Amino acid sequence: MNVFDAVMRTSTITLKVRSETSPEFIDITDEVEEFIESSGVLNGIVVVFSKHTTAAIVIQEDEPLLLDDFRNLLDSIASSDAKYSHNDFDVRTVHMHDNECPNGHSHCQHLTLGSSESVPVIDGKMALGEWQRVFMVELDGEKAQQIGYREVVVQVLGQT
């Protein structure tokens, strides 16, 4: 079969990722790999996207001491103890819920991490390096406890 005979396919799933605290690094690599395999896509790209402004997607190494370093870094960038206008519910008037929690720090931390990662798919597998893993990073532990999970959209596009 030549490249022009290949069938293009797009498949999408929404993972419900449970989280309990923050910052929490949750390895979702295996779930993404299983979805790619079930999609039948052999060569293409997979996008992993968080539907939240306080839960990020990153590719990083799953080494416990390094993850502790990342937690310390996030706290130094935007500590939960700092003052945030977003948390002043007497002044803030937009995008409010009845059970709003003070989470300005988690939005600021998210700004440094991002909402998505794109990874090439080659021969039905993500082309990750030896130590690379895909993480959802929970940045708002209180929100995580309220809703119990976060939604991560995984979409794979490519040739079957």
Short overview:
With 160 residues, this protein is of the alpha+beta class. It is 26% helix and 36% strand.
Summed up, the domain count is 1
The CATH class name reads Mainly Beta
Mean pLDDT: 93
Tell me about the largest β-sheet.
Answer: 5 strands, antiparallel
What global shape is seen? elongated
According to CATH, the fold-level topology is Jelly Rolls
| Through-space gap between termini | 11 Å
Helical residue percent?
Answer: 25-40%
What's the number of helices?
4
Strand content: 35-45%
Assigned CATH superfamily:
YjbQ-like
CATH architecture: Sandwich
Question: Got a strand count?
Answer: 8
Oligomeric description of these chains: single chain
Radius of gyration: 18 Å
Please state the structural category: alpha+beta
Order of helices and strands: EEHEEHHEEEHE
Your description of this structure?
With 160 residues, the protein is α+β, with helices and mostly antiparallel strands. It has a single domain (15-81, 103-159), classed as Sandwich (Jelly Rolls). The protein contains four helices and eight strands; from the N terminus they run ββαββααβββαβ. It has helices at 29-39, 64-77, 104-113, 141-147, and strands at residues 8-18, 24-27, 43-50, 55-61, 116-122, 125-126, 132-138, 149-159. A hairpin with a 2-residue loop joins strand 5 and strand 6 (125-126). The longest helix is centred in the middle third of the chain and has 14 residues, at 64-77. It starts with 7 loop residues before the first strand and ends with a strand.
